[in-house]
Amino acid sequence: MSESAARxxxxxxxxxxxxxxxxxxxxxxxxxxxxxxxxxxxxxxLTARYRAIVGGVFPLRxxxxxQVAALQRTLDELAGAGRYVCYQGLKHAKPFIEDGIAAMAKxxxxxxxxxxxxxQYSSMSVGxxxxxxxxxxxxxxxxxxxxxxxxxxxxxxxxxxKRVASGLDKFGDARGDVLVxxxxxxxxxxxxxxxxxxxxxxxxxxxxxxSAADVGRWQFTWQSAGQTGQPWxxxxxxxxxxxxxxxxxxxxxxxxxxxxxxxxxVLYDIDIEASRxxxxxxxxxxxxxxxxxxxxYMRALADSVRAAEKELAx
Length: 314
Ligand code: FEC
Fold this sequence. Notes:
8 strands; 2 domains; 4-stranded parallel sheet; Rossmann fold; single chain
């Protein structure tokens, strides 16, 4: 075995990131806005949303920590302890993507695979995480391979289908009347002009989950669009709920297949905002459980990491 083959492969597990305390919301929001601080109104609006979900705790951080630990355990089970070492790299908070790669370099890692905790590829999401990781890896002399998507991995589809099935169970006898609404974070509409695969991959995930869970009626909708003055992909979940109410739909199960954790965009945008909007229109809205550190999700990640690692050998 060569010296480099004996070294562990670093696995950079990348996620969006969240503030560590209420005091850090402004710095976090400024980072999301590429260095432009929010206005006092924007800051107050975001702070109020965090306050509404969990009284000052940021669930994404703990969930990401748990996901990274669970992926490490899964890789150890599959390949033996010491073959892979997971590091965390966040897009908008510490430890940043660059910090994760720098930690690898400090530990003597020479080869690394990067994977993002969101299943579908967009140049504005996964593409930008991987670009930052690749640039830093190059600086540190680490060979790097990135997982671009795993949106149709059978373990992911099966884990989501099980959640849809138990979500439908919540409706009891009315189960047959439920419309399943798959959703994902909107992006600026211009991504369509550049041929970005994001909308298509989201529809592919939705189709596969609907078919595995034997769902008769479903639609796809966008959520959580930003306020940037430019058009974002639509329809937004609130517009979709308005149309469904007009069509007489009374039971909706939301399945946010572009997200994998409990966090603000799920706990506020769906559980508080969309839920209230639906109930005002006579719709009962339920949501599937998020994947978090689900073992099948971890196997989908581990498998994708091992497949990408083969590129390093080339
Ligand atoms: O729980 C938490 O603390 C963090 C929740 C969170 C997740 C998340 C995921 C995605 N975003 C994506 C794209 C954009 C674009 C902009 C944007 C803005 C925000 C703001 C907050 C925020 N995002 Fe996010 N996003 C989360 C949170 N996001 C807060 C700022 C205020 C607001 O608009 O609500 C617009 C940036 C700009 O102003 O130019 C674009 C995408 C994902 C899903 C993929 C991923 O997880 O990376 C895409 C979780």
